[in-house]
Amino acid sequence: MANGTLLYAQSGGVTAVINATASAVITTARARRVKVLAARNGILGALREDLIDTSKEPLASIRALAHTPGGAFGSCRVKLKSLEADRARYERLLEVFRAHDVRWFLYNGGNDSADTALKVSRLAAEYGYPLTCIGVPKTIDNDLAVTDCCPGFGSAAKYTAVSVRECALDVAAMADTSTKVFVYEAMGRHAGWLAAAAGLAGQGPNDAPHIILFPERPFDEAMFFAEVKKTVERVGYCVVVASEGIHTADGTFVADAGAGKDAFGHTQLGGVASHLAARVKDTLGYKVHWTLPDYLQRSARHIASKTDLDQALAVGKAAVDYALKGMNATMPVIQRTADAPYRWKIVPANLEDIANHEKTMPAGFLRKDGFGITAAARRYLEPLIRGESPPPYGRDGLPKYVVLKNVAVKKKLAKFEG
Amino acid sequence: MANGTLLYAQSGGVTAVINATASAVITTARARRVKVLAARNGILGALREDLIDTSKEPLASIRALAHTPGGAFGSCRVKLKSLEADRARYERLLEVFRAHDVRWFLYNGGNDSADTALKVSRLAAEYGYPLTCIGVPKTIDNDLAVTDCCPGFGSAAKYTAVSVRECALDVAAMADTSTKVFVYEAMGRHAGWLAAAAGLAGQGPNDAPHIILFPERPFDEAMFFAEVKKTVERVGYCVVVASEGIHTADGTFVADAGAGKDAFGHTQLGGVASHLAARVKDTLGYKVHWTLPDYLQRSARHIASKTDLDQALAVGKAAVDYALKGMNATMPVIQRTADAPYRWKIVPANLEDIANHEKTMPAGFLRKDGFGITAAARRYLEPLIRGESPPPYGRDGLPKYVVLKNVAVKKKLAKFEG
Questions:
Q1: How far does the CA of residue A153 sit from the closest CA of chain B (Å)?
Q2: Which of A24-28, A50-54, A77-81, B124-128 is predicted with the least confidence, judged by mean pLDDT?
Q3: What is the rounded average pLDDT of the residues A351-378?
Q4: Where do the annotations place diphosphate binding (chains A, B) (predicted)?
């Protein structure tokens, strides 16, 4: 048994495969006889000294995490500020780490988490506390810098492409007398990565999706209507995929167009798909339907990408390796070494190069007209949704997802107010 | 080769497995050396004499229909009226049948289609035209009379239960600092069958879905809020599944609450989930998210139920058998012979007993408080989502769905205006 404890925490929006990373972290550490605690609800658990003893979970449960979506230890949406502005909380983290002999801190999240891990490592150095901080990549948004792609994205991308292909077949069958325009709303506030993945559902100009709307291009309603009309007249129907984050040239989010209060003072929630569908109905007179998959797209472990799963497992294993080697302030990232056949490997990157950077979609991935993806985008995206790795199913027809016991570690410190 | 032609048509909303029925119809008929034509876009194709020669499709394509969602020949939302009111159209159908020597007419749809098939058979008898009309069951709504369940429902039910289990894991992980109430909108205007299927996602009182809202019970907002609050306080979050058809005691659809025109005169589309989510946010102050899967739930062949697929194939095969035996005005239906182990067989039913009837959910399937399903409902529903039968996937990570050539048969008649 190595001296010291490894603390693992999940951060931000969960994915279909973040638990696979957790599974790899814990099984790798166990094999190296390292004790693993997990913070309940991400960094909050670390601040609250609300820690989970993963050694209380049988190996079968830890292995089952590899096919279980969600965040098994809980996650949170909390961003620590700068070392100066949030010093008390950073110091509290060190205090908790010291109390539980945490020598390795693995923070599984996106840009913000990389930043937090980096700052904790700096503070530890300042105080002379021996700590190795490792960022572990995760996000369906695919917007992490340095890494070629992010674990979590491939599965959400596969869900998107498969769902769009399927509903397009439905619309095609009914278009003669029913729905002619169908709008699919994809997650992606700042970058259109998931909307782009929908483009994998079809190939030719008559294949769905016929129109993709990206936050990277200003939304022009008149041009959109013209394209919808042209498509319906040519194909008989039109499948539109819209990023939640599309906005007009002046920066107004299209999703906010329907949001606000109604005549009774009741809240109206926004939404790109419902708004676009309503506008198409009003202006072009077509029968419309729309879908908002929301969390379904990031929790659909049943249609996870094998590539994505493999990478989620690989970053978890590498994170423990890096930690035990003392490779402080790094993140295991995915490096693509070939497109065809697709090859990748895990390499270390400096958290400094990742924290607070955001990877946007290359301009060369968007078609000139802004309504679709290019061959270059297809080359990049296609390997990421490749392969299936369905969960085991029970006799009841449902995936056998595991729920952990999550036994709390006895607290040693006073309550923290902050 | 038997004398005469078998005409197959798809009707109403398509499903994940209606093409499996088509596949079984065509392969069974081919094996019996019977020529099969398909009507393009359902009964409209029959009226327009827009017929497809299925013999032009290779056997591999016909077999691939068994794993392809949508409606391969096109479907339509057209209901013929009574024989008296729509006599010209019924007579046109007979005229087209005569021109193409159609001796067997298989109409794959719900209540309305059973009614149309029945009327066509009566008119044929009146005119002394030798025709055998068979209804073939299909609907995700599960509201067909006589049959124990409807092909198409089991797969949509499985999609629903799996999706709710998955997104509930997501919400559970994030609830501490993010979404506390999640609302899932299920199809079902008149009957809450799909919402009920969501109940399979969990077992105990703390398992999602915590609240199911059925069109069978009047919606009472105050009671709903109280239940949401109680659940969030007990469990930490609350997953709600709402049928699109829920309404208040006076019959007002909740989905219409947000529908209408906004201040700019723009259409606002309705929706149960977005409305409930907004009301919960306003009244209880919880952070909310919601999903509207819409067509995704009925086209998700990738998560089809094996039971459902088997039944879709079985009714297709039986329909051809019944047709060739001259069992006019019948429908092959599913008879459940045992719950555990689940056993079923296909038996003939009279179209007269099915046409224009609607099967509602037994009162004993709803919990007394109206917010969940009973053990009896579970016993009925669970076998229907059992088993997996994923489609084959390509190297590109996408299901290999087939698109038919749909070669038109040369027209023999003048154009029909009607």
A1: 14
A2: A77-81
A3: 94
A4: 13
At A2 the pLDDT is 61
Helix axes A306-324, A18-31, angle to 10 degrees: 40
Looking at beta carbons, which residues of chain B come within 8 Å of A386? Answer: 395-397
Look up residue B318 and give its two tokens. 């039986």
Identity (one letter) of the amino acid at B68? T
Structural Rg of chain A based on CA atoms: 23
Q: What is the CA radius of gyration of chain B?
A: 23
Question: CA nearest A200: which of A387, A377, A390, A15?
Answer: A377
**DSSP result, B387-399:** -B-PPPB-TTSSB
Alpha carbon distances (Å) from B57 to A296, B21, B53? 36, 16, 8
Q: Report percent pLDDT > 90 for chain B.
A: 90
Residue B376: how many CB atoms within 10 A of its CB? 13
B330, B348 Cβ separation under 8 angstroms: yes
The interface predicted TM-score of the complex, written ipTM, equals: 0.97
Tokens at residue B311, please? Answer: 């039944």
3-state secondary structure B164-203: HHHHHHHHHHHCCCCCCEEEEEECCCCCCHHHHHHHHHCC
The answer on pLDDT for B69 being more than 80 is yes
Contact A385 B396 (CB under 8 A): yes
Domains within chain B, CATH numbers bracketed: 5-149+302-357 (3.40.50.450), 153-299 (3.40.50.460)
Are the C-beta atoms of residues A380 and A338 closer than 8 Å to each other?
A: no
The token pair at B250 is: 């006076």
Substitution target from A76, A138, A174 for chain B, most B beta carbons within 10 A: A174
B397 annotated to a ligand binding site: no
Q: What is the mean pLDDT of chain B?
A: 95
Please give the Cα distance from B57 to B383 (Å, whole number): 34
User: Per the CB < 8 Å rule, is B398 touching A385?
Assistant: yes
Written as six digits, the tokens of B257 are 């609450």
Report how far Cα A131 is from the mean position of its chain's Cα atoms: 27
